[in-house]
Amino acid sequence: MRGAVLYGPRDVRFEERDAPTIIEPTDAVIRMSATCICGSDLWPYRGINPIAGPTPMGHEYCGIVEDVGRAVASIKPGQFVIGSFFASDNTCPHCRAGYQSSCRHRALVGGAQAPALRVPLADGTLVATRDVPSDDAIPSLLALSDVMGTGWFAADAANVKAGATVAVVGDGAVGLLGVLSAKQMGAGRIMAMSRHASRQKLAREFGATDIVTERGDEGVARIKDLTKGVGADSVLECVGTHESMMQAIRSTRPGGSVGYVGVPHGVTLNGEELFYTHVRLHGGPAPVRRFLPDLISLVFNGKINPGKVFDLTLPLDHVAEGYRAMDERRAIKTLLRP
Ligand SMILES: [Zn+2]
Question: What angle separates helix 216-226 from helix 242-250, to the nearest 10 degrees?
Answer without folding.
Answer: 20
